[in-house]
Amino acid sequence: QVTLKESGPALVKTTQTLTLTCTFSGFSLSTNEMRVIWIRQPPGKALEWLAHIDWDDDRFYRTSLKTRLTISKDTSKNQVVLTMTNMDPVDTATYYCARIFYGSGNYGMDVWGQGTTVTVSS
Amino acid sequence: SYELTQPPSVSVSPGQTARITCSGDALPKQYAHWYQQKPGQAPVMVIYKDSERPSGIPERFSGSSTGTTVTLTISGVQAEDEADYYCQSADSSSTYVFGTGTKVTVL
After folding, report:
1. What are the start-end ranges of the E strands in A1-122?
2. What string of DSSP letters covers B53-90?
3. Using 50, 70 and 90 to split pLDDT, how confident is the model at B2?
4. Mind listing the pLDDT tens digit for each residue in B39-91?
5. Which helix (H) or strand (E) holds B104?
6. What are φ and ψ of residue A90, in 5° steps?
7. Nearest CA to B14 among B68, B64, B81, B70?
8. A5 CB near a chain B CB, below 8 Å?
9. pLDDT tens digits, residue range A41-94?
């Protein structure tokens, strides 16, 4: 069974750095054509792709947030970490991780974590 | 930046058919996927690669594609289908975009 779970602080202050961890099971990020994605959703708003990391360590970032985001993986721990610097109240959102496994023929985000809510306050 | 446009809301009576459109210039070149999100829950994939249905998703969910528009169709809508629906695609091989979202209300 494939599962993902996000963890991190529920509250951060303005200008601080947010660190979120996605811990997964049921698959390996060393498997060819595997990808883990971070997505966020501000309250009452649409989903927004942030970044993703591939099995071969390729990394991609949302253009508007590229200078603030870093994504990394620890294959031995089955974890993907996302850091976002200089947090602002507009970054208040539920943050999700999900996976894509191109090797299965499914090019979509087939399994999602439950999400973790982050509030940014001054 | 690339956008996927959906109608904000669709209302449908139980047993009727709901159709949700998603428009984007790159859709002829990139697959589209659809997600259902109920209040307080994570999204769930209901359609991938324009028209494929994941295992466990009811047959009343189907997808189609014509030019720059993809459509999610829910046939014989049930009360449990009331949710927000998002399309998702790529604007290149390496970056993703979600649609603006559609709230489906079952009357």
Report:
1. 3-7, 11-13, 18-25, 34-41, 48-54, 59-61, 69-74, 79-84, 93-101, 106-112, 116-121
2. --TTS-TTEEEEEETTEEEEEESS--GGG-EEEEEEEE
3. confident
4. 999 999 999 999 999 999 999 999 999 999 999 999 999 999 999 999 999 98
5. strand B102-106
6. -70, -10
7. B81
8. no
9. 999 999 999 999 999 999 999 999 999 999 999 999 999 999 999 999 999 999
Strand partners, A120: A12
Task: Tell me the residues of chain B between 3 and 62 that have a Cβ less than 8 Å away from chain A.
Answer: 31, 33, 35, 37, 42-45, 48-49, 52, 54
Structure tokens at A15: 């200008």
CB-CB under 8 Å, A52 with B96: yes
Within 8 A by CB and 6+ apart from B81, the residues are B18, B36, B60, B74, B104, B106
